[in-house]
Structures are given as C-alpha cells and as structure tokens.
Amino acid sequence: MLRSVFSALAIMAMAAPLSAEIRIAHVYGKTGPFEAYAKQSHDGLMMGLAYATGGTMEIDGEPIVVIEKDTQLKPDLGKALLAEAYGDDDAHIAVGPVSSGVALAMLPVAEEYERVLIVEPAVADSITGENWNRYIFRTGRNSSQDAIANAVALGGKDVTVATLAQDYAFGRDGVAAFKEAIEKTGAVVAYEEYVPTDTTDFTAAAERIFQNMADVEGDKKLFIIWAGGGNPMGKINAMDPSRFGLEIATGGNILAALTAYKELPGMEGATYYYYEIPKNPVNDWLVEEHMKRFGTPPDFFTAGGMSAGIAVVEAIKAAGGAEDTEALIDAMEGLEWASPKGPMRFRAEDHQALQVMYHFRTEVQVGKDYGVPVLVREIGIDEMDIPIRN
C-alpha cells in the first residue's frame, strides 16, 4: 500500500510541469573602476523590466528571474561568466557588459551557445561591426553615434581638432569614428593622443597636444573621449590650454563627471542622455520613480539600462516567449520600442539600436554643483549616417 502511494506521487510529480521562469543574466562589471556605471546600468535594467511589465515582473504569467554576475572588468572572466550563465544557469537572454574590452571577449560565447546577448552599455563600434555575430543586439549607443553627434555639434570649416583618448577599444574606436565624421563637416583632426586607461597625470600628454597645436591657425579644439576616473578635462583645463588658443570639448557623461564641466561654461558637445532633456512619458516615469527609490535623478547609464530592460520584455512578448532564440532574433530585428530617450529601433542589418542624440551647451545653474548640459537641439536618427558593419 505504501509503495503504491509513493508510486502515485512519483507519477504525479513527473506529470506536473515545472513552474516556468524567464531567466535574464546581467553580466557586468559590478566591481572595479566602472562601478558607478555598473550600478546605474543594473538599477536601470530592473526599472525597465518593472516598467514594461506594469510592476509585475512577469511576462504572460511567467516570472522574470535576474541572475547577476560580476566580470570585475576582466575579459576572460566575463567570457567564462557568460558561458556559465548560458550553460549552467540556462539564461535565455544576457545583458551587459560595461567595458568594450569585456564585451568583445563575450561575443563569441553568445554565438557558441546560440543565445541572445544585449550589449549595454559598452560602446566600441567593433561590437556591432567587425566582431559582430547574429546573436548580438545593442541598446547602448555605439562610437559612431557618439562621434557623428559630436561632429554635428563641433564641426565646420576652419575647425582643427586634437583628440585625447584611452588606449583601448573604446578610445581608439571612438577617435576613428569621430575623425571620419568630423572631417565630413570640413574640419580636420590634426593630432591624436592616446594614454593608458588608468592615467591620472596628464601633464606630458597635454604638453604634446599643446606643442602640436600651437602653430595651427583658426578655431582649435581638444576633443576628449574618456571613461572612468582621472578627470583629464579638469586637469588639462587647469594647465590653461587657452594660451594656445585651444578650447576643450567633450561628450556627455554621468552626473559625478559633470562637476568638471562647471569650470567650462559655454562648452558644447553631444550627449546620450541627461535626465532633464527628453520629454516623453517613459522618461517622466523614470525620473519620478528614480527619485522615489533613490532620492536622486536618473543618470547617464540608468537610462541605458532601462532601455535594455524594456527591449527584453518587448522582444519576449513579440516572440511569444523566451525559449526559442530564432523566434527572438526574428522578433528583435526591426523591433521598435519606447525608451527614456523616445523611440529606439534595432537595425536589422547589425542589430544596433538607432536613437536620437542631444547637442548641448554647458551652463552653470544655481543649486547644481555640476555643469548642466542644456539642450541646443535634438539630433534625429535620420541626421546620423551610422555605418553598417562590413
């Protein structure tokens, strides 16, 4: 009798379906120099999932489970952790990472496991360019979007530019894209300077830039592409580049980095996001909800994380579930969704998200301890001729 009861229970257990879950792996540099970027990205991802599911964290009755993995900004570790997420954790989709170098190491893993990786916020063009594969989508902007937007803001005839960037994929891809874009406006890039990612003393680099630009005539700018600490803009500005007729220019950044912008009122550039610029219901929700949860406005990478979270939910809904990778890819190619920046769209050819950018001018405003990027004008998707991968 007892044996038959156990047998009946075993049969029932085998017959009863396991509760379905949608498993999302967030593989990102939770610790290390980009820790601030990572926290914003994760907070934004969770808020995007919440927003797109109406607060339920479920899609068609299936709960979303987010698995966090810390790459520590190490490419080999990022590669191993993504394999672990797909293989051991059976993640349907992965999101991340922060670093372009880590992202490039992770791309082949997505192809090997035939699972989708949504890159957010790593920027290097090569991620959706020469190193791309069909399992890679990117909600973050790429180097070309940064570059073309900044070229629109800064370029023109009789403009000569020097660049300063970090010596790795983000910096070199960024300069290459910027150089190509700004020279189309009639400007010239006359000098390029690259320094290690952890540089804190910019004296030697600045002196080389000054000497190479000293005899150049006309409108001269030093365009800085930088991620993380070190404050190159503030330190070089303290060396008085105006002695050589040189103006500092740069793109947008997180709020903490904007403190250096306060020393440069009137500086222009292009930015991916500043919480007061976009006017749409998604951004209104993000700003209000972020203030409720954290007591601060959302930052640069919070918006990106939210965009990725919304894209995940919309893709799974469109595909009819998360289990079938081919159905997800079909649904995501050309997918358009509402983000804090307005509409975004995955381009079918390379899965890069097309999105607006913002030409800004720095202002000093009462009550804010940073230089505020005030909108000059929105740079529309159709104004940016973003190269398609080779």
Written description of the protein model:
The protein is an alpha/beta fold. It folds into two domains: 196 residues, 3-Layer(aba) Sandwich (Rossmann fold); 155 residues, Response regulator (Rossmann fold). Helix content is 37%, strand content 23%. The protein contains eleven helices and 16 strands. The strands form four sheets. The chain has a six-stranded mixed beta sheet with strand order 2-3-1-4-5-6, sandwiched between helices. The protein has a four-stranded parallel beta sheet with strand order 8-7-9-10. The protein has a three-stranded antiparallel beta sheet with strand order 11-15-16. β13 and β14 form a beta hairpin. α3 runs parallel beside α4 and α5 packs across α6. The chain starts with a helix and ends in an 11-residue tail after the last strand. The relative contact order is 0.14.
Largest sheet: 6 strands, mixed
Total number of helices: 11
Quickly give the structural class.
alpha/beta
The overall pLDDT average reads 93
Which range does the strand content fall in?
15-25%
Distance N terminus to C terminus? 70 Å
- Give the CATH topology of the largest domain: Rossmann fold
Whole-number radius of gyration? 23 Å
Strand ordering within the main sheet: 2-3-1-4-5-6
CATH class of the largest domain: Alpha Beta
Share in helix: 25-40%
Low-pLDDT runs: 1-19
**Which architecture of the largest domain does the CATH hierarchy give at level 2?**
3-Layer(aba) Sandwich
